[in-house]
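Incident log, entry 3
Record: L-threonine 3-dehydrogenase (307 residues)
Problem: checksum mismatch between cached and fresh output.
Input:
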Amino acid sequence: MQAAVYESYGPPEVVHLCEVPIPVCKDDHILVQIGASSVNSADVRTRALDVAGPLKVILRLVMGWKRPKQPILGTVFSGKVIAVGSLATDFQVGDRLFGCTPGLGFGCHAEYVAVPIKAAMAKCPVKASDAELVSLVFGGTTALFFLNKASSKIGSTLLVYGASGAVGCMAVQIAKRMGFRVTACASDMHREAVLSLGPDAFLSYTNKELADCSTRFDVVFDAVGKMPAAERRRLLSDKGIFLTVGGSSVAKETREQLEQLRQWFEEGTLKPIIDSTYRLQDITAAHARVDTKHKVGSVVVLMDDRS
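Fresh output:
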């Protein structure tokens, strides 16, 4: 099968297309023919070892000191089941599923992936494309994981910092569903795109809007992990809750989260946000797009013209 592999850490150019064996479908796995995946922050940070301080050493120990133990990146998928292990009683050949590989398993930037049956995955909505579904998974499950830590009361205020990224786009929409009064914060160049998600207000951090903001919020969610500490202290109420993807708490994806995302998608109240799409053979360009840090939503990788 064709797969995007990287054999050393570095810039987007270390990723290249290669022919590798189709994964073996073990008894407690299913084999999925992938229609689409995405390149997200977990992929580019792992590829480039883009983590701070001692975390870089830890990441090398886990992923491989000199070269990656798992050369195929990609955490999310949408596609069709083509084989099932003997223990995979919940799935059948022909099922369309979307989800993610667990932990640091990766492996989704390829034509096929073997997925453990305990992984977070769910059946695809009938009218959804593979590209739409993979744009929900990473951002949606991450946003749900963190926002569920903050109970919403009527009138509770929430600031989403980094509202134009894959996580931020989902967080704005999900927080509205949860009853928050949402203020979205992003670059001014993304104002129109973020406002289309339905926040109650928008603040730009590339002009003086955020600096001049005197509102203090019940919840501040840093969806990119880069909010300055002084800004956080200024904008958070005295008993407020601060949530960040850049801390020690790591999002855990569940099947229940995916079922919830699917329900909202089918109801038309959660829309996928696709920044751009690339073919698998153009995976280097997809990584480069994410590295710009100017994308809106998800960068999708299509395996064929039917996705």
